[in-house]
Structure formats: structure tokens, C-alpha cells
Amino acid sequence: MKYYDKLIFELSRPGRCGYSLPASILGGKECACSNVGSKEAPVSGGVWRETPLTLPEVSEPDVVRHYTNLSQMNFGVDTGFYPLGSCTMKYNPKINEEIVSAFNGLHPLQPENTVKGALEVLDFVDGALAEITGMKHFTFLPCAGAHGELTGLMIMREYHMRRGDTARTKVIVPDSAHGTNPASAAVCGLDIVVVKSRPDGLVDVEDLKPLLGPDVAGIMMTNPNTLGLFERDIKEIAELVHECGGLLYYDGANMNPLLGVVRPGDMGFDIMHLNLHKTFSTPHGGGGPGSGPVGVAERLVPLLDVPRTSGFHGNFGIILRACAYILMLGRENVKMAGPLATLSANYIKESLKDCFKLPIQTVCKHEFVFDGLAEPNGVTTLDVAKRLLDYGFHAPTIYFPLLFHQALMIEPTETESLETLDAFIEVMRVIAREAAENPELLHTAPHNTPIGRPDETGAARQPVLKYTK
Amino acid sequence: MGTFTYFPHTQEDIRTMLDRIGVRSLDELYADVPSEFIHKGEYGLPSARSEEEVRAWFKDLAGKNTELKVFVGAGAYDHYTPSVIPYITSRSEFLTAYTPYQCEISQGTLRYIFEWQTMICALTGMDVANASVYDGPSAAAEAMRMCVACTRKRNTVVASSGLLPNVLETLRTYARYSGINLVETWDVYEAVGEGTLDLAGVIVPSINRFGVIERHLGLADLVHEAGALLVEYCDPSALSVVKTPAEWGADIAVGDGQSLGIPLCYGGPYVGFIACREQWMRKLPGRIVGQTADAEGRRAFVLTLQAREQHIRREKATSNICSNESLMALWCTVYLSLMGPEGMRKLNALCYEGSHYLHDALLATGKFADPFEGREFLKEFALKPLCDVKKLQQALLDAGFFAALQTEEGYVTFCVTERRTREEIDALVKVVKEAEL
Questions:
Q1: A293, A365, B234, B422: which has the fewest C-beta neighbours closer than 10 Å?
Q2: Which of B290, B314, B335 is the last residue of a domain?
């Protein structure tokens, strides 16, 4: 990667342009807004803009070269291995991208009989996701995982409210949960009660029991959890929560190892979301757009469309991509996705547990957590992560889950070859050796990237959040 | 098991890996899952298709949709997408990256978000903007929550009934579950004037659901005197020429970036934006990119002010948002770079010209009245139909037009973007003129 220092504003020269617009339909007659916002605009007390608009003035070739240069300072799944835990960075098939443009011209408010094809896609994906998860139906409104959590919790609250059960204002969240779980619950107006994990990393059922009561709306579970461990006691937990009148929410961020193997609905979950941008291969786009459809059990179907959490029909373009993936997988290959992801994770874990601290030894699912180097010699997880960048790998998720101080959360997915995994393992071993022999090299890593470690404290203390000349 | 194009494992690879792990089979990796939960038999999914078959499947479905000439807006606008945009946004390095957690290998994403934040500030006149949220309506909901957070114990938010219907629906949803007292009214001046001590914020549209460019003279002062915040919901494309939220004195500007060259695509993905005065910066939801330097003094960009966010603050975060709409923000950033200030002005002039031409021609048919005579509009307008709306809509559909969207108030709205030609507009008017309504 080469360092490229320009911002688009710095390429601007007055009088350049990168647009091409049709001619005026009335032959260029001046209209009320043709001059507003320009430097020559007469200042008026009306409804038109008075402040000159400052946008870059650049030609089309400038634009293309600038963004191409920017892209070359970026690392994606297509660039290399991306073992970012809980993010399921699997390969994003190219056919997914190609089928979208045929639907680009559809206005979201068009009458149903003019969008039959689009509705058929939604119907098909609804049915396929229901089959894969054991839920009855899905809503596609949520645009990301956390948006799905929020929508799902709204359905949970609506269920209790409609039964007049208004005292249920608490939601139970394990201490190992993704940060979005308690945050979504808070936005939904619920109080968060934390249930502890046992030393073996699973939810402590004994700690859970006294928390259950008539004030509990439900529990949010991630299964396998963020340590990559299957919550074996899920059957008992489901019974206990249902007995007390609560509902079970399934955080689908970790659905990938269960894809084709276990259905959340069969484990007793009532509401769940899926991250189509994780489990169903749609690209993450540098932080979205994603799609977080929410599925519910049969008795909650009437409530499915009650929360309107986005403007139209959700991120339809992403649903199209997931649809293509499901068609490619088919019933034959879906059964292999989860097991191969699990195989890859366990392979890395077993290959590195002599160099890195493995707090929980059991078989994991799609991901697992190391608690830093076995012999740190002053080298932190952050140092290890930064050094990985030098070797051409993306870093794992770091300092999460919060159960360990030096967490390195590794998720390889099913689309990486044995050779890639071996190369990663080899580099991790090299880094462990470097930590012993030359820790300074790691404290100052990365060395081969476009920039070195930036001053993040300064960035937060004196925020510069936009370009000024 | 057969082989599959996305799974690189050979049988031999699988054997090697199982041996390293010390288990005999893939099934054994699931030994900790109670057997009753292991799915038995086949999933009820279609058989795997070849790539060409998948292509054909979608081609067939796309053929079942009717491509119409779009004369409707209502929050989704049929502007042209320059060819550069999909070319840039489909570059793997942008498309297949995650959120830029490792800034040293994410400077591309971080830089375009910084550019996007700058451009959103330029359009709205605000001081700071975030990296994007899901869409316009959810951005409005986040702004509503910001008002409550910024004014501490206050809990009432007044929303103008002139906001788009899907914005109001989303506000109602968020308000219902987070316990915010949402008051909808056609007269925000009156609602604020009533002087409730609980008032946290007021949300008004820059251009309302009838396409009318609203005047908010003195509103900001009134809201600020009440100790509350003013939020403007706006169309960023239109902000190139209509008075900005900053010029009206607003504290927060929100809206949907779809009008900046994002295809209609049956409603998404689009991109929401939130910008505000510097004073409220630390209450913004979601990701924010800031400029800093590395040890060698090279300009560098990072995710910043993260103490607001869910992965640090959990339930105390300003919002639950994690993934946003980053790639769509790139979409808009490239669009605005191509258009520049002059392009945006010309574009809006074309919309203005076309919509006024259609407006006058429709009135001349005698089949409509103008309920908003004398009010300024840009690309969208509402008329009162003096004919049968169902028949009107059907006649337009039969001729290949999606137009005359009916509002809850009984009006019909039309929208004209730069993509609508004079021939199309004349043809639409002809249909209206000749149809028996």
C-alpha cells in the first residue's frame, strides 16, 4: 500500500467540472433558483440559499484517480485474510453484485402489481431464512444487525404491552454479549440486567435463576457466544425464561457456525435477527450497508410489521445479494458452511495454543479467543494486531469480549483455504518469536503500512472533523 | 460432499485439519450441541444452481417488474447516477472492507468518510457530521433522541405533520418504545408557544410532504427560548439552492442522501446523515472520523470520539448504531465531487424548470386545483384533484407513468427530476388531458 495524501478538496480548481447534464427543456430560461447559492447570488429574505456552496470543482478523470488512489490504502476480504472475530468476513461472491442493477429503477412506493419480481424475491428470501433458522417469518426493514436487535426488542416489548403485561421492563444480557445488545435494549427503553458467565465461558444458569421474575421482558443470547462456545444449557435457559413469561432473543451475529446445522427456532428462541452482511455473504462496504432482517416465531407474526424502524422496505439491494448466495448454496452446500467455518477456527486454535494463552480449551465454533501471548514480554494484544498488518493480514478483533484483558478474537470463516490458514499460523508464530527477541519491533508496529500508529488521543482531544482550507 | 466454488477445502485438507484438532469427523466438532438441536435431513431449500442459472433466475424476476417513468418523489428521487460512481464503489478495496477498525490499512475508507462529513457540513451549514446512519427516517429518530439527551430530563418532542409519512412513522416507532412524548402538529409555532417546560426538540421539514419549501422565520429563536433544539429534515440535493438548516438557525440537520445519485432500488440501500452544531458534537450517534497525524507527522485519519459508542459504553452509549451505510456515503461523496457547486445549481434549476412546467400544464387541464398557490417549490408539488384519483393513477400507469401519488390529505403529488424529458412531461399531460376521469 502506498501513502497518498490528497483530499478531494485539495484538487479543486475554480471552473473545473465533472458533471454532464441534459439541456434545459425550455431552452435555458432563467428560473428562480438558477443563481442561488452562487457567489453572485442576491441575498434575499426568501426560501433560497444565501451561503455560497463550497464543494470541490474537479474533472471526471481527477475524481476517478483520486478515489482509486484512496482505495489502494484500504484492505478488504479480496485483498487478504480478514480474521475479524464476530464479523464473519467471508468471501463476497461477485454474482451477488451483478444481479442488482436490474432492480435499480424501481421506486419504493410503486403499486404492488408493478413490482411483482421484487416481491417474489422478498417472499423467496423470507421462506429460505425461515427454513434455515426455524422462525416463521422475517421483516426486512432493519438495515444492520444493531437495527435488527432494536426492531426485535420492540416486537418483544409490543408482545408484553399488548397482553397488558407492562411491568416487564428488564432484559437480561450476558456479560459476554456484543456491545450492541445492551445499547439496543437501552434505546428500546428497557433496563439491562447482566447475567454472569461461568469460568468455562458459558452463561451461569445458577446466576440467571434469581434474575427471572414478572419484571423480565426477555433475554438476549448469542449462541455460540462471543467466545465461540455453544451455550449447551440453552434448553434449560429457554424453559426457565419462558416459564417466567419472558421471551428469548437470538443475536444472529454468530449464526455462521450454525448455518446448515442448528436452527435457533428449534432451540426455543422467539425472535432473532440475521446479519446478511455476515452469514449470507453480502459485502460490508467499509461499515455498511448491511441488512438485519428480524424473524419471529409463529405467535409473534402479527407483531412483525408493527415497529417501522426504517423508511421503505429495508436495504433491498442487500437482500438481492443474499438471495443470490442462497441460490448458489442450495440445500446441498448449506450443510457444509457452518462445519467448515468451525473446522477452520479449531484448526487455528489448536495450531497456536502453545504460543498464545488459551483461556478456554474446549472445541470452539466459528471463532475463539486468545488472551494475549503465552509469554508476553511486555508485548500487548494491540502490538500483535499492528504487527499482523505488516505481514499482510487484517488483525483479529481485539480487546473484546471484555472477559479477558488481552482478548484476540479470531474468526477465519469457511472460505479460506488451508494454505491461507497455515500462512497466518506461521506469521502468528513469527510474531510470538519477535515478542521474545525484539519486543520494540512490535511496540512500534506497523512499519509497512501507509501510515504508522496515529495519535488517537490528540484526535479525540482536539477534534478536526471536516476539511478547512 | 461435492465441491463448491466458495469452499476451498479438499477432502484431504479436511482430513489434515481434523487430525490437527484431534477429532475424527466434522460432526464431532458439534458434540457439545444437544443432539435434538442438530438439524436432521435436508433443508427445504432449492437445489444449488450454477452461476448462469442464478443470473437467469434474476433476469426472469426482473422481467416481472414494470419499469415506469417515475414522476413521484416522497423521499426517493429519480436522479441520474453518473457512471463513475458504481465503478468506484465496486472497487474491492472499498466494497469488501469492514468498519475501519485498523486505521493503518483503512485510510481509504477513513478519508472518504472525512470528505463526506465535510460535504454534509457544506450542504447543511452545520459544524460537524457523522459517518452516516441507516436512512433519512432513522436519522430523524436519532435526532429526536439527541434532543432528549441534549436537554437532559426533558422528554417532549414536537414534530411537524408536514414531515414525510415514513419519517413520522419511524419517529412514532422510536418514541413509543423509548418513552418519548411525541406531539404531531400542523402548527409548530403554536405548539412551541404553548410553553411546555418539557420541550426537548422540534422537528420540521425543510421541504414538506407537499413539496412546499417551508419558511421557518423566527422559529429557531422561539425554540431556543423554550430551551429546546430545532431539527430540520432536508433533501441534501435541494440544499444546494434552498435555505440551509444553519440559515434557519437549526441545531441539527438530518435527511437522506439518496437524492445524491443513489438509485431508487426499491427503497434501499440509501444513507442517512446527521449534522449538528459543535456544541452537541459529543451527543452524535455512530461513527465519526477525525484528522490526526502519525509519529512521523503524516496526516492520518481515525475513528474518533469513540467514548460515545456502544462498543465502549454499552447501554450508556448515545445510540446502538454500529454498521452504518459507509459505501453509500462514498456513493454521495463521489457524486458531489463530480457535480461540484455549479453542477448542483444547474441540476436544481433543471428540476425547478421541469416541475413548474408540469405544474402549470396540469393546472391548465382543469382537472386540478392548486392548494398551495404562491408557495415556492423545487421539484415536487401537490395538487388537489378535481377528478377520480384511482382512474387518474390507472390511466397514468397504463401509459407507463408512476405519478400522482395520493397523500393522506387527499392531494396528489408529482415530482420532476432532471431525468424527465420534455417529451415525457408532454406525454404525461396528454394522458391526463385525454383520459376520462
A1: B422
A2: B335
